Amino acid sequence: MTKVRIFVTYKPSVFDPQGDTIKKTIHNLGHDEVKDVQVGKFFDVTVEGTGDQVDATVKEIADQLLVNFNMETYTYQVMEEHQ
Amino acid sequence: MTKVRIFVTYKPSVFDPQGDTIKKTIHNLGHDEVKDVQVGKFFDVTVEGTGDQVDATVKEIADQLLVNFNMETYTYQVMEEHQ
Questions:
Q1: How many domains are contained in chain B?
Q2: Is B52 an 8 Å CB contact of chain A?
Q3: What pLDDT sits at residue B72?
Q4: CA A54: distance to chain centroid?
Q5: How confident is the model at residue A83 (pLDDT cuts 50, 70, 90)?
Q6: Which structural domain, as residue segments, surrounds residue B64?
Q7: Neighboring chain B residues of A57 at a CB cutoff of 8 Å
Q8: For position B54, which CATH number holds?
Q9: Residue of A61, A63, A72 to mutate when probing chain B, most B C-beta within 10 A
C-alpha cells in the first residue's frame, strides 16, 4: 500500500487569477512582505501496491481524470509506502 | 526571501465529498487498486524575510484568510530560503 500526494498547478505560462486576488487581499490586510501567491490543489491517493505499479496508476489517473493538460501540470511524491 | 507551501485540508472528522466522488470515478475507470482519495489545496507563498518573521506571516494569513478553521486545518513547509 502506498500513499502518494499528487500536486496539480497551473503551467507557468497560465495566469493564476485566484492567486493574484489572494495576494491583493493579503496586501489589504497589511502584509506587504508577501510578494507572490500561487494556488494549487493536491490529491492524497492511497494505492494498493508499490513502486512501478503505483507510478503507472498515478500516471493513468492523472492523464484520464485529475489534470487538465491544456492549463495544468502535475508532480507527485510518495508520502508512505508499506510492502 | 522565503518560499513556503501552505497545505489546507479538511479536518479528519469532516467528510470530503469531492475526494469521495473522485474515488468513485477512478473506480469507474477500472482502477480498483485506488483505495482512498482526499482533496486539498495549497498556496505557494513568497515572503520577504526568513525564519521567525516568515512563520509569523504564515500564521497570520492562515488565521485571517486562507483557512476555515471550522472545517479545515493547515500545515506548511519551507520550499526555498535565501538570506
A1: 1
A2: no
A3: 97
A4: 17
A5: confident
A6: 2-81
A7: 31, 33-34
A8: 3.30.1280.10
A9: A61
Note whether B57 contacts A34, CB cutoff 8 Å: yes
Cell numbers of B62, please? 492562515
A-chain residue closest to B64, CA distance: A29
Residue B83 has pLDDT above 90, yes or no: no
Say if CB A25 and CB B21 are below 8 A apart. Answer: no
What are the cell numbers at A59?
Answer: 500516471
Contact B41 A37 (CB under 8 A): no
Sign, CA dihedral B68-B69-B73-B77, equals positive
In A, minimum Cα distance to B31 occurs at: A57
Q: What is the pLDDT of residues B8-58, one digit of tens each?
A: 999 999 999 999 999 999 999 999 999 999 999 999 999 999 999 999 999
A51 has a pLDDT exceeding 90: yes
- Name A76's bridge partners: A6
